[in-house]
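During the no-cost extension, the postdoctoral fellow (Dr. R.K.) reprocessed legacy sequence entries with the updated structure-token encoder. One reprocessed record is reproduced below for audit purposes.
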Amino acid sequence: ERELRTDAHLEASIGLVAELKFFAAQNGAKSLVGALSSFDAQTVTVVTPDDVEHTFARRDISRIHTVYFED
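Re-encoded structure tokens follow.
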């Protein structure tokens, strides 16, 4: 796992699976796992395994880190 704090970290991790943790529940959940698809100065977008795209305000995200699964 690597914590993604800077824009350079996020840019290098586009396409990787990441977990977003939130300060307050978003859509009923305190965290979400998905493939990091894009970001800008205000938002981060991930695509969940069911191919649904979710965009969150960066100010609502407390932590983003990559997730690795063992086979």
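The chain has a mean pLDDT of 95. Residues 7-12 form the longest helix (6 residues). The remaining legacy entries will be reprocessed before the final report is submitted.
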